[in-house]
Amino acid sequence: xxxxxxxxxxxxxxxxxxxxxxxxxxxxxxxxxxxxxxxxxxxxxxxxxxxxxxxxxxxxxxxxxxxxxxxxxxxxxxxxxxxxxxxxxxxxxxxxxxxxxxxxxxxxxxxxxxxxxxxxxxxxxxxxxxxxxxxxxxxxxxxxxxxxxxxxxxxxxxxxxxxxxxxxxxxxxxxxxxxxxxxxxxxxxxxxxxxxxxxxxxxxxxxxxxxxxxxxxxxxxxxxxxxxxxxxxxxxxxxxxxxxxxxxxxxxxxxxxxxxxxxxxxxxxxxxxxxxxxxxxxxxxxxxxxxxxxxxxxxxxxxxxxxxxxxxxxxxxxxxxxxxxxxxxxxxxxxxxxxxxxxxxxxxxxxxxxxxxxxxxxxxxxxxxxxxxxxxxxxxxxxxxxxxx
Length: 389
Prior knowledge:
Blueprint lengths: L1 H10 L8 H23 L3 H24 L8 H20 L8 H22 L4 H24 L4 H22 L8 H26 L6 H22 L2 H11 L4 H13 L1 H20 L7 H26 L4 H12 L1 H4 L4 H22 L1 H13 L1
Helix pairs in contact: 2-3, 2-4, 2-8, 2-12, 3-5, 3-7, 4-5, 5-6, 6-7, 8-9, 8-10, 8-12, 9-12, 9-16, 10-11, 10-13, 10-17, 11-13, 12-13, 13-14, 13-16, 14-16
């Protein structure tokens, strides 16, 4: 009877607010994001960017797994607490291996990643006792995890194009698993799920602030001060574009969706999938900020210019897709802004990086001003409606 009671407590999350242990877990993910930015900064080439984004994708999917886990179980309950600590330790090893994930530490990266993922599977399977739907979904997750991590282990014994291809295959199979095995059996605490993803956006934005400081290599002169101020402004604009209304409307939509397949598929598509390009875009912007602070008077190289402007565009395009999937409305203004940013990449390689940063911030400020004025009435109504609920 006591064991059954423990299982029940493990299965049902009793509150929807994010708990301190989840924030503690996310601190390790901060290091992982920083390592991805540094990996691309050390090799600012197209190949280096692909590798960095592949590593980021793998790390993201491990974080997604625990966001679903802690929407089912109480992370601070008994044995789960120790399991989370173990996953944190393994994730820390994964983060430490990021600089050599495609080199000498590839095998250790893959093995530590397997430990992170298998911990989630075991906890979910245990929590799903007496729930055939959840256990069926967890078995599908176990298959995807096993195949994906096995391919990563195999990739550690290769190099070059074959290694990159194996990484891409492992990530695609793992990420595609929820489509293959369906979303019906999963459990979800919707407000917790939304808050958790909002916090990871804040963490990614915070890493961008860290990149500003890390990019300063010499004297803190007027140019560095200006770039720092503009960089903080850019990060603030990215925050505004997500949290002013988008996050509130998304929470309203998810909490009012029918529990089960409808709610789970919205959570999977809008949050687990579409938040990845948001985070990836922020990481690319962080790389651009880091390189800008290195020499504010010099133009950005084409790869870094693409990272800064293209990363901002990716972030906006993810918002367009996110809004369409969540409420079936299209954001023309954000699409246009993304297109303009991409079109400005050739200019960015000709002018000072400080000027490029100023242009990006000006475009986002204009976008925010337009949306604030053009959608003022709708914005106020939605904000008050969502907050009241």
